[in-house]
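User: My advisor, Dr. K., asked me to get a structural model of this assembly before our group meeting. I'm new to this, so sorry if the format is off. These are the inputs:
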Amino acid sequence: MNEQANETLNEQISAYVDGALSGRELASFEELLAANPELVEKIEITRLLRQTARALPAARLPRSFTLPPNTKPTLSFWQRLFGDAAQAQKIMRFGSAIATALFVFFAGMGLLNASAPPARVALVEATPTSTSPAPMVMSAMEAPAAKVIPIPRDAPLLGGGGPDIGGLGGGPPGNLGEQIPDVVPTNPPLPTAIPSPTATPTATPTPVVSVPVPHTASLSWAWVAGAFASLVAAVVLGVLGWRRQR
Amino acid sequence: MTTSQVALAASNAKLIPVDENLLITEAQKGDVESFNRLVTAHQAQVYNVAYRIMGDGASAADVTQDVFISVYKNIRSFRGGSFKHWLLRSTTNQCYDALRYAKRRPATSLEGLGAEDDEGDGDYDAFVAGDDENPHAFAERAELRHAIVLAMNDLPADQRIAFVLSDVQGMTYEEVAEITSANLGTVKSRLSRARARLRERLLEQRELLPGQYRQTSMGA
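Assistant: The format is fine. Below is the predicted structure of the whole assembly, which you can bring to the meeting.
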């Protein structure tokens, strides 16, 4: 008989002696018993073992194990802090309620702040000569009027002006590429580019794109931190109070 | 004075049994007297369980003392349920620790040298033969008991604890499972292994078995 089968048989013998075999298991085991008379001896010995163990005499106490009357109680942290357990529970519940109210306040203020209309716009300056323009985001108040590019005195002027004064803006399109190949931006102009109003006609116009700033940028971290801290406090105090109640 | 303290004082005056929950509540507030009443109510069982698991009186006394000190320190963490089971869980845990320590640092108890077997600390009334028992049968019974106790001490700790709680203390599988923090299947398995080992030991010493078992063995 292998070890697993032997173990199963031992469990069945143990359960049979305890009367813990259910109807079908019992019938099956009794069939096994009828076929294996040596099992009867094992069961009888197990019963004897159980009876003898149950009848073992109770040991006499060598002494009393009571604690000396002056034994100091070991108070928990909360008991040292709050005293009575019931009082501690009340304080925790009250603290949890306060923290919940704070959470609502902080979360509400944070949401109000976030939902206010954005007072800022971002300007993206497209650098005409750059192969990989890096957009610059800043508020309208902070943005410089325009980037003025110095132009040599004898260079042909762009924009405005007719051909009789040397301006290229009004000339035929065919002349543009021939006369100033390096000044014309190689990148295609952005569709929403607008020239800066303060740019002089002689300067190369710098396209500026206005982009709405996402609302999250205006969320104050102080509100978020306050809401998070009060939520944690509410949960911790609530759980502690609930555990004390149990 | 709280209501529970008033009830305790009244019970002390009239010597009436007090609700265990009341004593626990007072003990949780640090009342040593209430705790000592709990100790008095449970110390015999705790000591007996420790005695059967540890196998000698000195170790059992040490374990019992440690159990009550530990329970007093941690009584605030008691969340209701059976206080007896909670105490016995602490007892079996302390026994595990003591057995592990004894395994690492084996030593012979001076107290144990004097006593030839476990019955040295026991209740001697249990060893007096009854009116209907002849001296021969009484001696046989004592020898069998002695053999079982010796064999119990050779069991692994988990099997010994399951056997002591179930067969010596007469607890159900469910109670043993709760005390040892094991599931029912584990308890049944440990118990069946313990019984099988003890049974094998007894079958090796058939001369200790009562007459009818010796006849069976001869027939087999």
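One thing worth pointing out at the meeting: The CA atoms of residues 2 and 22 of chain A lie 25 Å apart.

User: Perfect, thanks a lot.
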